[in-house]
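Q: Entry one of two.
A:
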Amino acid sequence: MPGPRMIVGWLGRESRFKALLEAQGHDIVDLESAADSVRCEAIVISTPEAQVEGMVTALEPHVRRGQIVVHCSIGLGVQVLDPLEVQGALAMAIAHVGADRWIVTTSDELAQGIAEVLLFESGQVTLPKTDAERVEIAPKIAYAQMVRQLARAAHRDLKVVLDEEAVPPGEEQGEFLAPRFVTSDIYSAFQSITDPGFRKAFVEAARRVGEIENNMELEMWGLQEELR
């Protein structure tokens, strides 16, 4: 049986999670400010990773006991929501990692149960992970996304050279993982990499992605890291 419908305050970008909640019948409200969250049963922070902590600080004076607070950043665990949990919020970190798989980290068993129900209603699979495990997963996801972008670019180039359909069906426009990492998330993910070989490959991929997508900021960052 479907669970109770909620007013969900949304902070940040569109995402697969928003689409799932809308499909379940929840009322999604794009919040103009953190103060507007007081009328919501749940709040979702769907900003780039670098902005999550600031959003938590803004929400702290307004959150109330029993509110559900979710952030969608793969690179951060549930601990970043501690200031809201202290106020009585149910804290959850829910990140989409591809297909119907979601990484979930929560503050307690009650929050875990709610997160699982929200995803189960849409036929999704919950993968419980710790904060430490999320930190390790984040750069691998970012790298997989960047390599996929490079593969699509290579297929397009080959198609031009051969003047025929060299792009496998669904490859050019297909998504490997969602949501796609923004530039600041790539920087954050890189900071947690300890393996020297992976660090080198990650930077090379980021520089090339910046080059083919005319993202000068990312390209220059890659060049600078390669010279370190």
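Q: Entry two of two.
A:
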Amino acid sequence: MKNLADHDSFVDGVPHATFAQMRRDVPVHWTPDHGGDRGFWSLTRYADIMAAQKDPGTFSSAQGIRIEDQSREEYLARRTFQETDPPEHTATRRIVNPAFAKPVMAGFEQLIRDLARDIVDEALAHAEFDGVEHIAKRLPMLMLGRILGVPDADLDWLVERGDALIGNTDPDFTTTVIDKVNTDAYAMMPFRSPAGVELYDYAQQILDGSRAVDDAGILARVLQAEGGAIHGQDFKNFFCLLVAAGNDTTRYSIAMALWLLTQQKDLLGQLQSGAVWDTCADEFIRVASPTLHFRRTATRDVEMHGQTIREGDKVLMWFVSGSRDETVFDDPNTAHLDRSPNRHVAFGQGGPHVCLGMWLAKLELKVVLQELASRISGLEATSAPTWTRSNFICGVKSLTLRPKLK
């Protein structure tokens, strides 16, 4: 079994064989202390992950959602509503949920289609192109600007900083690799990253009015929300969360879809048949599961599968494993675009922390694939994909593609 605490265990993609072995033999698995951080428990079976998701009273988010240990001061400085439990978490979600509701996201479909059409046309103008740079990265980036209400001119800069935050373990994204250099100087910054300093400065300019944002965007809405506007440090951390999470996870889901189209040759025909558009996005996202885990902290002693999780222990819910649990999903390592029902846990479903951007991510993936499938008769990968070095967010980082046009 590979060491799940080691980011290098993921440089060739998710170690699915390790997770399959853990589901079978040690579904509640202990990883000892590592790199100065305390050890942690891993939950790898679907049923156990769902049970933990539904019990925030026992499995708390209020001490951090990543493996790393934090002092109380660091936690308070960096936390977003993701790192809170009900009722505090519920109160914040009431402010932000309406902006991400399914009917609201559906209203963006024509905009997404217009953007996707141009993106796909520009990519297909090349005999070969990097599918991540030319397609998977571009659509979520442009939609991020519309959702936030920030100008397109700022998006490349913002996404680069967001990559440095969430990719803080990958030297392709940052020179301040968290497990390779001393990051104590940035302990109060999101992800212990110097990019957090720059994003905080950008957010402060929005707060003090020196940088304008569109009144229709989510940033203006949360600043003006009646009875619970988000301000100060909470706004800065919320901004960093949206910049990082609002781009990367959708990017890696689209990138996985592109990779699968080159590996399972029947998938393109299924898309072109029109029969799977209502189900394909969930299946591509299930297979991708780009957010590999979230951490919880036990608030009491818990017995699971013969193991005793002690109060204060860190517990990782490995969504990427739960979404390939053989007892729930037939042939889980293969994409079946008509899979239904498809109750994967890639969005953290089943508890109070379900992903805000779920409906937007599924719509973006569906639309960009519709535009691509309508223009090609085949897609070939001319090089092996590269993968992010991370046990938190993992996905295809680069992928050279050669399309066959209709």
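A: Comment on entry two: The chain has a mean pLDDT of 95. The chain has one domain: 7-405.
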